[in-house]
Amino acid sequence: MMRKLMVLWSMVGMLLASAGVATASGSIKIGGLFAVTGPASFLGEPEKRTLEMLVAETNARGGINGQKLEAVIYDTGGDVTKAVQLATKLIRNDKVVAIIGPSTTGESMALVPIVEKEKVPLISCAAGIKITEPAKDRKWVFKTPANDHVAAEKILNYMAKQGQKSFALLTVTDGYGSSGREQLKALAAQKGFRVVADETYGPKDTDMTPQLTKIRAVRADAIICWGTNPGPAIITKNVKQLGIKTPLYMSHGVASKKYIELAGADAAEGVMLPAGKLAIFDAISKKDPQYKLLKEYDAAYRKAFGTEASTFGGYAYDGFLLVTNAIRTKGATPDKIRDGIEQANKLVSVSGVFTMSPGDHNGLDLSAFEMVKVSKGDWVLLK
Questions:
Q1: Any residues with CB less than 8 A from the CB of 185 and at least 6 apart, and which?
Q2: Which one of 46, 92, 243, 343 counts the least CB within 10 Å of its CB?
Q3: Which residues of 326-361 are buried (b: 16+ CB within 10 A; e: fewer)?
Q4: What's the whole-model pTM score?
């Protein structure tokens, strides 16, 4: 009789495992897809490190509800085709209960139909608004960076206070840049700004002086560049080389010290952008609900990797927190995790305080960003 029971329990365990459900004695597998190498490695490397660090910390404390976590992480290199292949592998072969990543908007958009079909939650680390909207068509898709229209509105609100009424656009022709360009133009029309130039550049371009020469001729009140490095760093250098004095704004896509390093502190001096509070956590109020978490994350990251934590690594932190909070409150199956993420309410994390809903799979507002400026090779808070 005992032998039959043992065989029966073994069969149940096998069935649960094959369905992607962690058994009591097994680990809960969380997938990670990050651009650890390639042009977007400044995004993917801190994301991968952060997820690995958090899994190790959680397991050292005994796991979640008595179960250990296992991070199954693959490097997409920022390549859409590779991201699709690896996401399929995570779901069908590795049997993960959720996927954190990818790092870029283009990759994330490519994975939407896959995770919707397979019914596995995806928590993207990219900013494009179309990743999660319309939410009715993105039941299994969430993202942790604030929507690009939030960042765009933060810039335009600050410009309005400075009396700046016109701007020139210079955006990269990838998914992130195209989405930002669309949001900026729509918001400009709503808020009474004039877009006096609309220039673009390719992700692999190494000189944007032709576009900037055209922009210089239109006498805009400001220039807004939307992209992720290395493009924005090159543009910053080109602006300096051309002697352009027009105020230069960047998107939150460069909110890490890597941008200042690539552009050079001298060229980047005075550049403004919306950034998550991690970049300037020591300048915000200690009463801010994020302050303690930001300080602890930065300290843990410095201890583990010898360098400061970045906003981009924070996106993976947020994804991990959303997934593990859902596991604790709902359960460790994909459907329960999905429901738990969607019901997250006032969840304090790196990028902000998340309040998700069936109609909002990002859950962040203008409070997620602070306007910052580069000063002497570092960020300072703008008032």
A1: 169, 195, 198
A2: 243
A3: bbeebbbbbebbbebbbbbeebebbbbbbebeeebb
A4: 0.84
| Average pLDDT for 239-265 | 95
Is residue 14 situated within a structural domain? no
Query: Residue 102: which domain range?
Result: 29-146+292-363
C-alpha neighbours within 13 Å on the C-beta side of residue 382: 22
Helix (H, G, I), strand (E, B) or coil at 22: coil
Integer Cα distance of 44 and 30 in angstroms: 16
Q: What token pair was written down for 300?
A: 């843990």
* 83 is a domain residue: yes
Give the tokens for residue 32.
């990670």
Please state, in angstroms and rounded to a whole number, the distance separating the CA atoms of residues 286 and 316: 24
Reading the block at residue 321, the tokens are 């927190």
Pick from 35, 68, 211: nearest CA to 232:
211
With a cut of 90, say whether residue 358 has pLDDT above it. yes
The tokens describing 70, both together, are: 């296992």
Structural domain count, the chain: 2
Q: Between 26 and 184, name the one with better pLDDT.
A: 184
In a domain, 102, yes or no: yes
Three-state helix/strand/coil letters over 350-362: CCCEECCECCECC
Q: Tell me the residue type at 221.
A: D
Q: Are strands 248-250 and 353-354 parallel, antiparallel or unpaired?
A: unpaired
CATH at 80: 3.40.50.2300
The pLDDT, as a whole number, for residue 13 is 39
Query: Which pLDDT belongs to residue 15?
Result: 35
Look up residue 155 and give its amino acid. I
Cβ pair 312, 256 in contact under 8 A: yes
The per-residue DSSP string of 76-90 comes to -TT-HHHHHHHHHHH
pLDDT of residue 11 exceeding 70, the answer is no
CA-wise closest residue to 21 among 338, 267, 335: 335
What is the residue type of 149?
A: H
Banded pLDDT at 318 (limits 50, 70, 90): very high
In a domain, 7, yes or no: no
